[in-house]
Amino acid sequence: QDTKVIPIEKFTSDNNKFSYHTFLIPVDDEFVPVLNHEHRGFCWVALEDHPKPLHPGVWRTINFKEVITKIKTLESILN
What we know:
By secondary structure, the protein is of the alpha+beta class. It contains two helices and two strands; from the N terminus they run E-E-H-H. It has a two-stranded antiparallel sheet. The two termini are about 15 Å apart. About 0% of the residues are buried. The model has no long low-confidence stretch (mean pLDDT about 85).
């Protein structure tokens, strides 16, 4: 199976010294990810059912109307 890596957003700080990319990667089944030192946990949830509080960067990403629309459009195409 080919893995689809779909770019969702690129964030760049105001001073242009930091940026990160957010991707959507569809999977057939839930799995237990291998976490590194930057993570405390994970969960599989619907977009509108996320845990609180969220990391500020994740919160920002999923609260942009354009990002939500893109994710929901991709969900409907991929499902």
